[in-house]
Structures are given as C-alpha cells and as structure tokens.
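pipeline/complex-builder :: batch 7 item 3
reading input block
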Amino acid sequence: MDALLQDLRYAVRSLSQNLGFTLAAVLTLAIGLGGNTAIFSVVNGVLLRPLPFPRPEQLAIAWGHHPAIGRETVSLPDFLDWQSGVHSFDRLAAVALANYPVNGRGEAELVSGAVVTANFFRTLGVSPAVGRDFLPGEDSRSAPRVAILGYNYWQRHFGGQADAVGRHLDLGAEGPYTIVGVAPRDLRWEGEVDLWTPLAIDSTRPRRSDFLTVVGRLRPGATLLPAQNELNAVARQLEERYPDTNTGWRVDLVPLQEELVGNIRPALLMFMGAVVLVLLIACLNVANLMLARLTSRHREIAVRTALGASRSRLLRQLLVESTVLALMGGGVGLLLATWGIDALRLSQAGTIPRIESVTLDWRVLAFALGLTLATGLAAGLIPAHRLTRADPQIGLRDGSRAAAGSPAVGGARRGLVVAEVAIAVVLLSGAGLLLRSFARLLQVNPGFRVDNVLTAQISLPRVKYADQSRRVALYEELNSRIAATAGVQAAGLVSRAPLGDGAPHNSFEIEHALVTDPAAVQDAETLVATTGYFTTLNIPLLRGRLFGPEDRAGAPGVALISQTMARRYWKGHDPLGIRITRDDPSDPAARWYTIVGVVGDVRHERLAELPYPQLYLPMAQVAGRRMILTARVAGDPMRVVAVLRRTLAELDSQVPLSNVRTMRDRVAESAARPRASAGLLALFAATALLLALVGVYGVIAYGVTQRTRELGIRVALGARPREILRLVMRQGMAPVVAGISVGVICGLAGSRLLRSMLFQVEPTDLLTYIAVIGSVSAAAMGASYWPARRATRVDPIVALRSE
Amino acid sequence: MALAIDPLIRLNGVSKIFHTKEVETHALSGIDLEIRAGEYLVISGPSGCGKTTLLSILGLLDSPSEGSYVLAGEPVSSLTAAQRARVRARTIGFIFQAFNLIGDLTVFQNVELPLKYRGMSRHERRAAVHGALERVGLLHRINHYPGQLSGGQQQRAAVARAVAGQPLVLLADEPTGNLDSKNGSQVMDLLAELHQQGATICMVTHDPRYLKQAQRTIYLFDGRLDGHGPFHREVA
C-alpha cells in the first residue's frame, strides 16, 4: 500500500512537471471519456432503465397484424373480444390519443389527451397522484363524464391545487367533465398527455375501425409467446365468425419497453459503437504521447532497473501514472458529459423516445469510472511494456536515444497511427453514408409544394358541431376568408396534412369486382379534402376532375384516388366512373363513392416511404370535427397566422387553432431523426479525425526531432528543402495510407450494419468512400506538412558534430 | 577531378560570428585562403579554434558573417539554401568523422544518395556507385546495412559516397577520429590514392601522424590563420 501511495505521489509530481504533456493527454482522454459517458447515459436512460411502472417486464402491446398491411391498431369490438377471450393477462386495457378543445379560459385551447379504458392505470400499475382512478364502468357510454388531469397540466392550469379535483372542464361535449384525479408525474404515453378521459365503449362500432392501442399486463409467470398464441386463437375465432372484416388478421404481442424504444436501438448502439471508437483513438493518442515521453525517461528507468527495481514494480509505476491521467481525463470528461447530455436532450427531443429521462445516475457514473480505469490501463500498457523490456545497459549508455529512437518504438508509434486513421476512416465512412442518405432524403419529391405553405389545425367542439352542415359551413367560410386575405395565393382544407399527422387506413370494396383472395386487403390512406387543398399544395390532377360545387352533402358520393391507388387496384383499367364503398357492399345502407379523378401521389407518412394508395373524399360530404387549413402565401407563411387566429375567433371563439406550422417545418421534422443520426455520427467522426490528425502530427513531429541528424546529413549531401519536405511527408503518410486501406476494408465490412438507416444509398457507395479517402488524405497531408516544413530548416551543420 | 579554374577556392576576409543571448563569439576572423585544384590541404589547430566552422563554410553548410567566398569561379557567399544545396550536390564531397551513413539505407543506397540529389539518371547512378565502391574495395558489401559493417568499412563507404559524384573538392572532417589506427591508416591511404588520381582534398585533423600526407597545412588558432603553427609546412 505504501509503495502504491509512493507511486501515486511520484505520478502526480511527474505529471505536474510535464504540464504540456499532461494537458494534451487529459484533454484527449476527456473527449473520449466524455463522449462515451454522454452516449452511455442515453443508452442507459432509453434502453436500460426500466419503464416507470411496477414490474414493467409484464407489460406488452398487442397489435393487430395482417400480412398485407402489417401492424395496425385494434378496433373496439376486437379489443372487447380479446379481453373476454384470454387468460394469460391480468388485465387488457386500451388507449387512443385524442386532442380536446378546452373552453372557458378565453380563447379555446387544444390540449393533448388520451381516451382510455377504465382499467388503463391499473393495468400499468400506477395510481393517480391526487384523487382517484377511473372506476370500473366509467368507460361505458352512459357513465357520467369524468377526467383525470395530466400532472403538468394540473400544475400549469390549477397551480397544483388539490381542490382541482371535483371541478369541471368544458370539452365541448354535451356536458362538462368532472375532474376526479391527477395522473402521476412520470406518466407519459407517446409524449406528454394533458388530459385522460374514459373511452365511451360502444360495441356497435365497426370491426375495421382500428384506432385503439391495446396494452396488457401478463399474469405473474406468464410469458409472451403463449400469451400471443392465446390472442391468435381468439383472432382465428373472430376470423371464422366475421370473415368479411377479420380474414387474415392476427395479433402481434411486443414487450412495452421494446415497443417504446425498439426502433431507436440500432441507432443508439451505433452511436455507442462510434464513441467507443473515438475513445480507442484517444487511448492510442495517449499511448503515443506516452511513448514519445519515454525519450526523456529511458535513462531514469534504466537507473531504477540497475538499482534493483523489478519489472512488475516498474510496470506498476507507469500504469499508476497512466491511470492518474485517465482519472483526470475522466473527471473533465464527466463535466463534458453533463453538457453533452443537456445538448442531447435539447437536440434529440422528439427523435429519441424517453430522452427526457436521461440523467447521470449511479449506473452511468459506475460505467464512467470503470471505463476510465480500463482506459488508464489500456493507454499505459503498450508504453510500459515497451519501456520495461528495453535493455537497461543501452539506456544507461545512450540515454533517451535508446528507447524512443529505437526502430521498435518508432514501429509501435506508426502502428498506433495506422489504427487511429483506420478507425477515423470507419467512422467517417459511416457518417458520410448517413449524410449522403440524408441529402437524398431531402431531394425526394414529396408530391406536393413545400415552400410558402402554412398548415394549422382546426378542432371543432363535439356537441356544438355535431351537425355536419354546421361543420361544413364554418370550414367553408373560414377557407374563403383566408383565401381572400392579402398575400394568400390559395387555401384549402384536408383532414390530415402530410408528414406528421398520419392518415387513417381504410379498407374499401370495389363495385362488381371479383374478389379472388379474401385475405387480399384493399386498403388506402383515407383523407377528406377540398379542391383548394390540391391547388394550394400543387398536387396535380392527372385524369378526370377535382371536386366541384355540385359535390355537396346529399349529392351522390364522389372520390379522388391517387396514381398509386389507380395502378395498384385497377392495373391499367380506367378507374373513372367506378364506385367504391368503405362499408359492407351487401348492406343496402352502404355509402358509395364514384371515382371522378386521379391525382398525383403524396408521401404522406414519411419522406423515405414510397407513396401508399390514397383515397380523397370531398369535405362537403364527409367533414369531420378536425381539419387542417393549408394556405399558400406570397412570402413568409407565418405572417398570416394572426389573420387566421382573428378570423377563426370572429367565426367562433370556442374553436381552437393548434399545430400551426409551415410545411417546410413539417418536412424538416419528418427528416429530424436521419438528420440527428447523420449529424451526431458526423460529430463523432470529425472528433475521431481530429484526434487521429493530432496523432499523425505527433508521430511526424517526433520523427523529425529524432531524425534531425539524418536530415542534416541529407542536407549536407545536397538534399534541397523540397526533397526533405517530400521525404518527411512521404514517410509520414505511409502509416496514413495503410490506415486508410485498413479503414476502408473495415468500413465496407461494417457498413452493412447501416443498411436499415440508409435511404437510396448503398453501403458500398463509391462516392462516399472516395470523398472519405480524399478528405482524410488531404487532412493528414496538412497535419504532416508543418513538421515536414520544420524538417526543411534542419541545420546541416549537425552532420559535422560528433555523436 | 582537377579543374582548370585556379584557385578552385578563394576566401577573402571571411569571418563568422555566433550570437547567443548577449554573447558574441568570433569563431573565424579575417580568413584569407586559396586552395588550388588538385591540392591536398590540411587544416589543423587545437579544439575550438574554428576548424569545423571553416570546413562548414567551405562546404556551404554555413555562410560567412563577413567576407567573400568564390568556389570554382562563382561567388557563393550569399546563395539561398536551395542554391547552396545544389552546389553542394554537384561540387563537394563530404567525409565526416562519425561516418554519417544512414542506418536505414544499404551501402548502395547511401552512396547513391548525393547522386540522387544531383538528379542523375538511375543508370548513371548505378554505374557511379559501383565504380566508387570498387575504388574503396567494398563492392562485396554493396547490399549490407551500415550496422553490418566495421568502423573502417563504414568510413570507406562514406569515402565512396563522397567521391561517387566526382566532386571538385573533397572535404574531410577528422576522417580517422572514430577509427583505430589500422583502419585510420587504411582510410588515409585511400585519400592519398584519391589525391594521386587528381582529387582536391581539404581535411581537418589534429592528428600529427597524417599531416605529412598533405601538400600544405594551415594552422588555425582562435579563429585566425596562424602561419607559424607547430606543424606549419608547405609542399610545392
């Protein structure tokens, strides 16, 4: 113990005497360790930390699944049948997000809400922070209207007062909602929820009206697969009983944690891998610095050996030094990590689920400490090994030249540069591929006009606008007033705007069509729109006509379809004049729509996804309570927001305006995750390259110092400055070229892991690799130029001096 | 190797002053010296007298602080570094006390080095290197590395490197300083042989054994030429 303390004191003294070296090493390690700690804190907060529910491993989401459609939410009748038919679950609950217009506080406000079955909170295992939970039966249509406030909403609007319970909220329904409780602080569902209300269970709703997310708590001891099999058994019974609606539908059961964070896992693991590589470069750099420092220490070590110090004793002393360095680097790194976590929380909000729960907890601190100690050992091992293997006789005789100037140490340092450059190339290739992919994504034609378009959501109160004619009247009046506003070039309405709102998928039947495969679902994104929507967004009419004034309520139903829908379901035949229905075609009350036009495709869900078949119904015939106003404006679209608010308030002050965004913002948000991934990886890659360049510079600069005499001899023999420059740069670039070669091979091998994140870019994209090779070569030449230039100033007189 | 220009080297009033912090050191003062083509000159004197400084100025490794230097009829005192390098590569052959062979290069590559800097073709270089190594009796060691040679062999390789390009003048700085007497004698015999063949040699040494081989000895003391040095002698 005494010896260890002595080593520690010596290490601190030695490092404080070499401030330049210490500072460089600590900063290098801090960058590597800080990056790792920050990213691990995200991995920990998002992937490792359990969900804020008791026994979260028992919670799972049950999706409907159809081979032709994929995963889908669940209809209420199906949910009720699942609920009554399975035994593997303690509880099955259902939830659907829904926004509420809340009146009574000046201008109507749209709040984010969720409708849930009465057992939802009990299924998750949480209790309200204040008041009570929903009671069994409160989710029936006849039950009194009750609501539970979201914790933050309660704080914002009721000052956190317990007497909020018992008060009433006007949500535009037939009567007010009574507040019965406040949800726990941590409870979120796909983001912040301001208001929870019970689902009004109506078992007569159609079976393919899928809108519920089903969450279940498995019985203690029950496992996922048998539970899924049991749900599928129920699904098969429903298929037999309701072949028109349930053919082919099965159940997909996914652990809740997996569901919430599953799709971010590959990206997070990629970031973690990237920062580990950055740390590796930092380690190699510090090892390089320590090897360089051996120049001045070989005689000291030789003297110690001559005086009887054992190899293990010397090893320990050197490793204590590198560990002290690492601990200092780890301390600074922790500081960098706290800033990094704040920056990540801000920059990745909305792109990484659960990012708000990312903190520096004990697990992160333990990780940081373990990594720091491992880094200390790793960075010190190579130099310590080299030094203690050197011949002490040579050390005593030749001092610093023996170890640091020896070919073995020079080879080790060049080897470290090869590794550093190779790692930087791997990271740069990955970042380059993601950046190229992101650039491709931004070049995608979404099928509509993006610039100078404003979008804003109008949500009508339920009771006041129960009558469709009233809804249509308000929408049309608002639309015509906005269209007439100075600077507005066109205005229109649509039920869901592209990129952000999603779109309900509806199955439909074609009149007189011969259905050969009952499992072949005819499905389309169904939107309600006005003609103005198509002109505002420049969505082209390809055939037929758009909606006209004759397409009113009571007139024969009409529809527009997208090009992809025409191709997929009519396969070269003319769809115009054909009638389709979303109802049971055998039902005499079924509502039929005649296709009157074909319009251009719109990438509605995501820029990276090919357009899905789209079905447009006229707003005048099927106006819902929620519509998005779109307006094309000359200049900045946000400048008409005030006019829009004023106009809407004039028409009805109880109608809230929400989700006001430009279409450009929607496109940017839809590309936020690829942009964040590319940006973050590019940051790590740039850091890696910078550290690698420092390594290249260090090795060449050190080599020039070591070879001063040789360079002097060359100058004495007639070498001109440019020949010395070329010689030093060529020799300096040799490990860089080797590193690039190794890096490209590893990059090509590893890039396949990125395939799922790439859009229209192959993992072996030649242009990316050429750019990476070019930029690394140019940067390394820049890094080697300065020491090489210094080499040209070597005084040839050194050749005349005796050794 | 002898040239019609006479004198081959002319120094007029050459001084060299080194400035370190506030100290001014006069390494050479008012040196006037002429070296004729084909002459064998020895510069001698005690340690610190300025021998090596004079040799470095003669070899264009350094510039005089004052005075003029004319080499083969061309004034060379104020050339740029690149110009001096070109003149060195074409005109001067160096033999160093510490041999100064480059450890990573073979004997062939070491001898070839100044020829490369001179811009000779590969074919010419090959012939010149073989010729030079044959003259010093090291052709059988052509692919060896310096570390594989004895001290005497290393200095013979250095001599081969110095003469391979047939320079106008050979500058030797204590060429036997790192050798035992037997190897030292062999190297000095080699220099004498080169002189017999017409080489102009200017050698720095303070070993009295080798003074007699030279045609002329100049003695330096405190940076000045001292014509009455202990070993002063001139051979016609």
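note: The interface with chain B takes residues 709-710, 713-723, 795-797, 799-800, 802-803 of chain A (CB under 8 Å).
queue -> next item
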